[in-house]
Amino acid sequence: MDLSHKFSKKELTLLYEDVLYTILHRMGKPEPNQVSDPDELYAYVQKVFNMDPEEHRIILQRTKELESPIFCLKATVKEAKEILGKDVSGFSDPYCLLGIENKKQDSSVNDGTRQDGKKRSKAVVKNLIPEDQTHRTQIIPQTLNPVWNETFILEFKDIENARFQLDMWDFDEVESVRHRLGELSDLHGLKRFLKDARKDKGQHDFLGNVVLWLKDLHCRNDRWYNLEPRTETYPNRGQCHLQFFLLHKRRATTASKTQPSYTVHRHLFKQIISYEILQHQAGSTSWDGELNKHACTILYLHATQKDLPVFHQIMAKWLAYSKLYLTVEFNSNCLLPLITGIEYQWMQGRLNPEQKAELADSFQSLLVYGTSLLQRYRIVFPISAPNSAQRLQSLLRLLVQICKMKAFRELCTLTPDLQQMVTEALKLGTTEWFQMKKQQLKPMVKTMEECGKALVSLVKEVNADLQQCHKVWNKYFSNTMRLDLFSIAYLELQELVSCYVKEKLSKMDSGMSHLTAESLFELYLNLQELHQMKDFLCHSEGPLELMNFHQWFKEAIPKWLQKAYTIGLERTQRAVRVDQLKPLGELNKHSTSTVDLSTCYAQMVKTWQQLAWPDPEEAFMIMVKFVEDICRIALMYCRLIKARAEELSSLNQLEEGEAANRLCVVVNNIEQLRMIVLKLPSQLDWARLEQQIGDVVAPEQIQNTLHHQLQSTVACLNNEIRGVVQTLATKLEAGISRHIQELSTCSDSKDPEDCITPLMKFLECEFEYLHGNLVQENFNSLLELLWNHTLEVLAGAAKLRDGHLKYFKKLQFVLQSLELSFHAEGCGLQKDTLHTAAFTALEKELELCSSPSRKLIQKYFNARIQQQVEMNSEKYGAVTIKASYRHSEQKLRVEVLNAVNLLPLDSNGSSDPFVQLTLEPRHEFPEVATRTTQCIKNNLHPLFDEVFDFLIPAEKCQQDGACLLLTVFDYDTLGTNDLEGEAFLPLCSVLGLNEDEEPTNPSRVPQTRLSLMYPGTTGNEILKLLETRKGDREAQAFVKLRRQRAKQSKFE
Question: Which of the chain's ends, N or C, has fewer CB atoms near its CB within 10 Å?
């Protein structure tokens, strides 16, 4: 890139001549960071101006022939500090005399030696330098720290022999003795007064001097110098702050004669930075504006020799850099210090109208150009380019700082607000970018499929751009310019996208192909993403164009659902077709097809979640169809997987075990599918959907559609599982029946554990196999079927042989062992599942059948006692007694008080009642005789008041089933006594059995009223069981007695 074309050849030649003149007539010692070798400087400017050697030689020769400039020292006496106080008051009235002496350095005859090794000057300025070349500062009265800030231009011819000297004097004016005595304040002042008295009137006091060889100065100097004495008296005389510039007057170059120094310097600056930016190997955008030491040396010398003010130097640099920025982008951070410098110098008001116009134009140009860069920020600052963010931020800061400047506000009064300018630029740039992308992505072939793909690509580009706006660029605009880039871009793009997409979709009809529908679904998702970005807006006025974008796709929904169903069905068929019905591993007992099916369902669920249809009522209808398709796939899978099992079996004639393995895998697969289907309501978020449609769809409709459909499918799956499990169970039921039949035919004398061993080994082997091949749910279902079958077989075995106690004990042991086996310490069926009604009945039956006769008799009386407790009516009357036990006498005392509401059993409408008292069961009280009260004639409410004592041990009263049987009979003279009723008093409840409760006063024994009962059916199963024990005389006698008692009841 050649930027030198901005100057004509003649202009470049004149400028080049002026630069060579600057180098040629360089003065002063070089600064440490500057180039001292002139040949290096010549070589550098030759490259900067692209001069060939011959041109350079000619121009340099011509420059050497030009007249030399007038060399000047621009000296500024700024201030002094801590000078001597020569007046009586302790202060001085200092002023300075200064000039340049032209002499050889070693020719001084009046010099002494200074502290720094140089000779001390004893001569003063007025004696060394002609009066017309001598300069004098103002007199600063009564101070030891005077401030002058006076500048003088001192000409010289030979810098090698030129010496600058400044003398500082205390001005002494003629005053009266009375006045000076009045100023005395201390002894030191008196000494000064006496010394002054010896001086000539008007003689000034020497305060010190500064003597410097010009060749020892830099081109620019600014420092404090010690004031030197002429003699050793008062060596510490304070310091003086001086500033020096080595200048040119009347430069002989054409440029210096025809153009202002400021203009020439600005052109030189522009030429140098145009060259420097091209030399930056990393590219212009990373150039930070720093110049090398050759360029800095030349610009430094040129500005100093031309005595350019600081403001003009800053202006020249600003104009050069800002104009270059309009052509070549570089790091704008280097412009910020210049803005600060201009703002500071602006207060001095040192610019002429032309310079002000230049500055205003530079501001306007940079604002316009910077705004145009922001308008194209996507292209100018691509996210892929390094340091793009920093470059953008620097530009924003630059524009903001320009608009904050007082100089800008005064010079550019008609410029619009920066935020307004940038906002309009960003809107326009966003529109241009969208149109460019739209044109780039325009399809070559205008079919519906290609148009759909083009729309998808365009919206993707928009979304990506807005994501970058939000995540990357917005913070820079917001922090630097208080501008929300994202909101500006989003509001523009969503409107542009809406208009364009609606226009394109309006041209598509409902007869779209599946490929077009697929593209439209992707377009829908991308528009959905675009619409969701509205949440990042700081504010929005009115509804957005994208608000109802989903309505544009209503005609495509059936196609989308059909596509999802077709893909799901094809994946399912393909998965089953390659499934070998082998478990995936020890932890996963289902086969590969369920994994594929789960993935298929997950994809369908994802499709629903992505769809996220905004309209609740329409979303409900979509959901109904969606669930229907999912259920259809589930039922189809069941048919396919069973058919696959049959196919594999027919291809390979395998053993029964392999067939069972496949059945296990099939049922596991269906169970896995059932679990997947049961998760659908939560995965599809039915609860949220039901909440949204609560106002428009009745709960009954929801239940009759979604829930009923799912429940029906689950029921079908359960039936399928049950059918396969039943098939597996059938294979085992025969073995269980055979083993139970074998153990039931074992000799009763054989140990039950030995009898049951074959059955337990069989179950252990089968259960281990099934548990290893079935998931826990199916294994439990199988166990439940086998358990019910086992109970049926055992119940049948219990009816085969009656009356053999050991036989039933064996069956009872078998039942208990099987319960433990099916429970398997919690790994099998749970207790509540095992304890079915059939189990409880069988357990009770076997417990009764395996109990001894006396135990059964006790159970009989326990049943009658329980019946007595639960009796809540006196249908057959009641009997009232008092019962107590005396431990000291081991005596049970029963007082029969009365009977009431007896039934009339005689033909005369009355009865002749008496009470029979018996301690039961008889085998516990064999020696205790039955007692009887007197017979009360013709009385349905007889009063007996009879006491009976029974001598029995207390522990006998605590026996199971021990009770007092009170039987009320109607005395019959000619035939058998009729039964009025019977009552049972449990002996364990009698007062006094506990020694602490033994009554001391019979009157304190409470009355007990017992309702009379008939034998009825209570305990009949026990009586029937006892009746089967033909060889047990005690059992037969008990049954005979109870049957006889039943026959005595007229009302049973």
Answer: N
Domain assignment of residue 548, yes or no? no
What type of residue sits at position 466? L
Of 970, 878, 967, residue with least CA distance to 930: 967
Res 43 pLDDT > 90: yes
The answer to whether 370 touches 429, Cβ cutoff 8 Å, is no
* Strand-strand pairing, 135-136 and 94-102: antiparallel
Express each pLDDT in 241-282 by its tens digit: 999 999 999 999 999 999 988 899 989 989 998 888 888 766
Residue finishing a domain among 229, 248, 267 = 248
Q: Please write the tens of the pLDDT for every residue from 573-589.
A: 999 999 888 888 777 78
Tokens representing 230? 């002429």
CB neighbour list of residue 748: distance below 8 Å, 6 or more residues apart: 804, 806, 807, 810
Q: How far does CA 487 lie from the centroid of its chain? A: 24
Q: Nearest CA to 169 among 240, 234, 96?
A: 96
84, amino acid identity: L
Strands, E assignment, 37-93:
70-81
**Is this structure's pTM higher than 0.90?**
no
DSSP state of 469: I
Same domain, yes or no: 424 and 454:
yes
Ordered strands of the 162-170 beta sheet: 135-136, 94-102, 162-170, 205-213
Give the model's pLDDT for residue 184: 55
Supply 948's token pair.
């009976």
Angle of the 776-798 helix axis to the 752-773 helix axis, nearest 10: 150
Q: Is 883 helix (H, G, I), strand (E, B) or coil?
A: strand
Rounded to whole angstroms, the Cα distance separating 428 from 422 reads 10
Q: Of 685, 677, 692, which Cα lies nearest the Cα of 636?
A: 677
CA angle 119, 121, 127 (to 5 degrees): 150
Residues 6+ apart with CB under 8 A from 988: 957, 958, 962
Cα 743 to Cα 737, 832, 850, distances in angstroms = 10, 27, 17
Please answer whether residues 257 and 294 qualify as being in contact, where contact means their C-beta atoms are separated by less than 8 angstroms.
Answer: no
What tokens were used for 483? Answer: 């501008």
Q: Is residue 131 located within the same domain as residue 206? A: yes
For the chain, the domain total comes to: 7
**Residue 94 backbone class (left: φ over 0; alpha: ψ -120 to 50; beta: rest):** beta
Domain of 58 in residue numbering reads as: 8-69+250-308
Boundary of a domain, candidates 509, 543, 577: 543
* Residue ranges in 225-325 assigned as alpha helix (H): 254-258, 261-279, 293-305, 310-325
Question: Whats the size of the chain, residue-wise?
Answer: 1052
Torsion sign across C-alpha atoms 658, 662, 663, 668: positive
> Cα(first)–Cα(last) distance of the chain, in Å?
128
Do 268 and 18 meet the contact criterion of CB atoms below 8 Å apart? yes
Same domain, 785 and 829: yes
pLDDT above 80 (res 796): yes
Residues 888 and 1010 in one domain: yes
The 3-class secondary structure across 11-51, one letter per residue, is: HHHHHHHHHHHHHHCCCCECCCCCCCCHHHHHHHHHHHCCC
Is residue 94 within 8 Å of 83, Cβ to Cβ?
A: yes
- Evaluate whether 548 touches 498 at the Cβ level (below 8 Å): no
Handedness of CA 869, 871, 874, 876 (dihedral sign): negative
Looking at the fold, whether 901 and 1036 belong to one and the same domain comes out as: yes
**b (16+ CB within 10 A) / e for 227-261:** bbbbeeeeeebbbbbbebbbbbeebbbebbeebbb
Beta strand pairing status for 963-970 and 978-986? antiparallel
Residues 485, 379 share a domain: no
Task: Determine contact, residues 253/14, Cβ cutoff 8 Å.
Answer: yes
Mean pLDDT of the chain: 85
